[in-house]
Amino acid sequence: ILQNLPVFRFDKQNFAGDAQLISSVYFDNDLLELYHGRLDKKPGAIALRVRWYGSGDPEDQVFVERKTHKESWKGEVSVKERFSLANDQVIPFLDGKLNVKDAAKALRQRGKSESDIEKFIKLFSEVQQQVDSKQLGCFIRTSYMRTAFQIPYDAAVRISLDTNLQMLRENPIDGPSCAEVGRWYRDPSLPVANNEITHFPHGVLEIKLSLREGQVVPQWVEDLLDSGYLTEVHKFSKFIHGTATLFPDRVQAVPYWVDDESIRQSMILSAAHPSHTEAIPEPSAPQRGNQSVDELTHPLLEKEPSLSLMGSAASAAAKRRLRAPKGGPSENIIARLFPFHGLKKHERKSAVMRMEPKVFFANE
Question: Of the residues 41, 105, 122, 238, which is catalytic?
Answer without folding.
Answer: 238
